[in-house]
Design a protein that fits this description.
The complex is a heterodimer of chains A (235) and B (223). Chain A has 235 residues and is mainly alpha-helical. Chain A is built from seven helices and two strands. Chain A is 75% helix and 2% strand. Chain B has one domain. Classes of the chains: A mainly alpha (235), B mainly alpha (223).
């Protein structure tokens, strides 16, 4: 975990500095200049933060679902601690993705919120996380709480493919890759970036995922200690 | 008894106990009347277009589902009959019995809501009945499928009423949005093939929800 900790710190620092400091020019020369993206200009820098954070949100949700599944199969409390820790981080990243996206939308599309299919999806994901924690706080018994919240996260997970794959193709939207987009699936899926942007973007993906892994480890360790303490007190 | 026989027995038991009190059906019918009259008041001076009417139709179906569908499990919990039910039938039988009861309930209420809309809104003319029936039936069954498993979860908690809406809303967005879009098509007179992609989404949602709930119901039901 030491390795994950230090590399996530170094990589996130690199992404922040490189993503903000490298100038955007019309004819880029070498590694130290980004090309101008038509219609985006300086605002294109947000791609290094918004996209990896949104990606990590989905990863955190899947991890939470996976440990929920492990919990209901084994009834081992450790998996519940992992599941809820991952859901908490997912909520945080989901919030960050919503905020960075809303700011980007304000300056590119004119409004903080446009009900584009992907905006709708991230809003629903926020609601699912909110409902998950509301359900947990309504249940007192530890075992029942762990079991029912795991089932809820799995039932909610069943709808996620519809949001990711079905809805953006049915509704017209503003994000790249929406229904009727002449540019195809968008710069992220087709990797249509200049090579130095692509390097920063991929490093950002790795960096935010490592950050997630490190934070998850911290939260799981704290959660386990709290759990043991509460058991000793009740003894 | 075979699984089908036991499932039928669970549905028959629920319908019989509902028939004795008529508690859920009466309160839900009153809810529907109230909701439709509020919409009538709100829209009395405008001439609503198909988009608005289809949205308002689904709003009523949606809130009816939210207010009535949790009773199947909450009433067992309130009457203290959950343990008996756990003893006499397998989880699969219980799940499908409750799902069928909820499906019958919401289909009946959707029929009533549709009739009220046809009477009270002059703009609510169903140009293609086939598209309308398929979209309302598939959408309502999708609502019933998600509502049943959430009702089973919610029956174990303390604050049932409010939490039910909170847990259910994110799951019902897909059938709600797709149902609205295909109902607009029905009101505007599209052919079946034009609404086919909507029906595919509704049908796959229904299948995914029923299959997932069937697999997960054991973990909710067994203590």
């Amino acid at each position: 975990m030491k390795f994950v900790k230090y590399s996530s710190i170094v990589l996130v620092t690199f992404v922040i500095i490189a993503g903000i400091a490298i100038p955007t020019v019309r004819a880029p020369q070498g590694l130290f200049e980004f090309p101008t993206i038509p219609g985006l200009g300086q605002k294109s820098r947000n791609i290094f933060f918004h996209v990896p954070v949104a990606w990590t949100t989905v990863v955190a949700f899947l991890v939470s679902m996976y440990y929920g599944f492990r919990y209901v199969r084994t009834k081992n409390m450790e998996y519940d601690i992992k599941s809820v820790s991952s859901a908490g981080l997912g909520f945080l990243f989901c919030f960050l993705a919503t905020v960075t996206g809303a700011i980007w939308a304000k300056f590119n599309w004119g409004d903080y919120w446009n009900w584009d299919p992907r905006e709708t999806s991230i809003f629903i994901l926020l609601l699912i996380y909110g409902a998950y924690f509301a359900l947990r706080s309504a249940l007192e018994n530890e075992e029942v709480r762990a079991r029912l919240s795991a089932v809820y996260s799995m039932v909610a997970g069943l709808t996620v493919p519809f949001f990711i794959f079905v809805m953006p193709r049915m509704m017209a939207g503003l994000h790249p890759g929406a229904k009727g987009d002449v540019e195809g699936k968008g710069p992220v899926l087709e990797l249509k970036m200049s090579s130095n942007m692509l390097v920063v973007f991929l490093v950002a993906l790795v960096a935010f995922n490592l950050l997630y892994v490190w934070l998850l480890d911290l939260r799981v360790r704290a959660g386990k200690l709290e759990y043991e303490q509460s058991r000793e007190q009740s003894r | 008894m075979s699984a089908f026989g036991s499932t039928y027995a669970v549905v028959a038991k629920d319908i019989r106990s509902e028939w004795r009190t008529r508690y859920a059906v009466n309160s839900l019918l009153m809810f529907v009347v109230t909701a439709v009259s509020i919409i009538l008041f709100a829209l009395r001076s405008v001439d609503p277009n198909p988009e608005l009417l289809s949205g308002m139709l689904w709003v009523v179906i949606f809130f009816t589902a939210m207010s009535g569908m949790s009773r199947v499990f909450v009433s067992e919990e309130e009457r203290g009959t959950t343990l008996t039910l756990q003893l006499v039938a397998t989880p699969t039988v219980i799940y499908f019995g409750k799902l069928l009861f909820n499906s019958v309930l919401i289909l009946f209420l959707s029929f009533i809501i549709t009739a009220m809309y046809m009477i009270f809104f002059s703009g609510f003319t169903i140009q293609s009945p086939g598209v309308y029936v398929i979209s309302v039936v598939l959408g309502s069954l999708g609502f019933a499928s998600a509502s049943t498993i959430i009702a089973a979860i919610i029956a174990k908690t303390r604050s049932r009423g409010t939490l039910y809406a909170v847990l259910l809303f994110p799951l019902l967005i897909i059938p709600l949005m797709v149902g609205m879009s295909s109902t607009i098509k029905a009101l505007e007179g599209s052919t079946l093939s034009e609404a086919l992609s909507d029906f595919q989404v509704l049908a796959s949602y229904l299948m995914v929800m029923v299959a997932g709930s069937y697999l997960l119901f054991d973990y909710v039901w067994k203590e």
